[in-house]
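Students often ask why we bother encoding 3D structure as a string. The short answer is that it lets us treat folding as translation between two languages. Here is a chain of 195 residues written in the first language.
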Amino acid sequence: MKGLAELTKTTLIGGLLIVLPIYLSILLLAKTLSAIVTLLSPVTATIPAGVQFRQVIAVLIVLVVCFVAGIVVRTGPGLRAKNAFERSVLEKVPGYALVRGLTDRVSDDDSEGAFQPALVEIEDALAPAFIIEELADGRYTVLIPSVPTPAAGALLIMARERVHPVDVPFTQVVRVISQWGAGAGEMARGVSVRS
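And here it is in the second language, the structure alphabet:
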């Protein structure tokens, strides 16, 4: 009987950990779209279309604005303006640099701000991490992500000999962290903790 209760509890918790993030994502998306439709309602009200198509028109307007912004950023002056805005405003927002680095790596942008996957030695264990930067004295600033959320975790400054960059795709490391460590064996291949 105790085994059945334990199985029921772990199954329920496991299901909750899957359903809750999906539910929250859908809820957040619905709230965002609702806010966009409300914001654009003065514009869409002037369009002679049926009520059922106003939300579609609002979403299309947002997509067109995003596309135009993307084109502007590809020009020299647009890129300089974007970089200046990031430096003066966005980089002061907590967590922006981390999210920016994650999106750069996911989009295969190998720019200076991209994070390098690594394994770091913590006591007698290896932990998946991202190298944020190399310091002037040779040490590394690393982010050890929390499971199962790779965008949060502990930030440490570690000696170079305890940080082992790994040659695996960034997305694979994010997947390992998101899946509670499943698939970490390939990351650890060829890296061992010194005694």
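Translate back mentally: Residues 2-39 form the longest helix (38 residues). Keep this in mind for the problem set.
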